[in-house]
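Session log. Operator J.P. requested a structure for one protein chain; no other inputs attached. Running the standard single-chain path with token output.
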Amino acid sequence: MRWWIVTLALLFTGPAAHADEGILGVLARSQLARLDHASAADPSSVRARTVRVSFETLARALGLRHPVELRVIEGETVAETLQGRVVLANESLADLGEGERLFILAHELGHIELGHWEQTQHLYQKWVPGAVTPDQTEPVAALLGRDGSGLAHRQEIEADAYALHTLHALGGTSRDAVTAFMHLGTSLDTATHPGTRKRLAALRAADAQWSADPQATTRNERSDSVSRPD
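Structure written below.
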């Protein structure tokens, strides 16, 4: 979900909007720019096929409510969800264990299934309801940045919990999730992501909740509907 920082930069540091363009138009162009800059991996490579097989396993098991497209990429991005339906997944995920790979991919699917893109659009529209002009955006830049960061942090925690519950439903364990974080490297808080320590603490809480009642989910989670694939 790092893309929204790019959108804020477009809004508040330059003439991003076309004449009479609304915020949803700017958001759409920001997302498209991210997609255009993603370098596709060789689809015939063993690594790309491995990532795709894991993704398809998840998609079948979850019975996704929304159409989803997977693009296996190369470069620095590990995994990202754009346009509320496109998952970018680096071919390097093939180098991880299956449980770790499933956790990272399920995290991205969680953003889609939990409606995070729609939530983000609603937030931007709240602060920039009309045409995107300096008069509209400059007074609300700090407030939108604050609320956008808070929303992004909450969405990351929710997607982590969704992915953890998905792992459990598929017979995996929380160890796979923790190992995935270790491979990704420890990080501090950023504008878009809570630090690793906070995310692991939230995962422990979600794991404890699941252990106490495997059928319990938050108001947004659907991982109880996951069945083990054949």
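Operator note: Residues 141-169 form the longest helix (29 residues).
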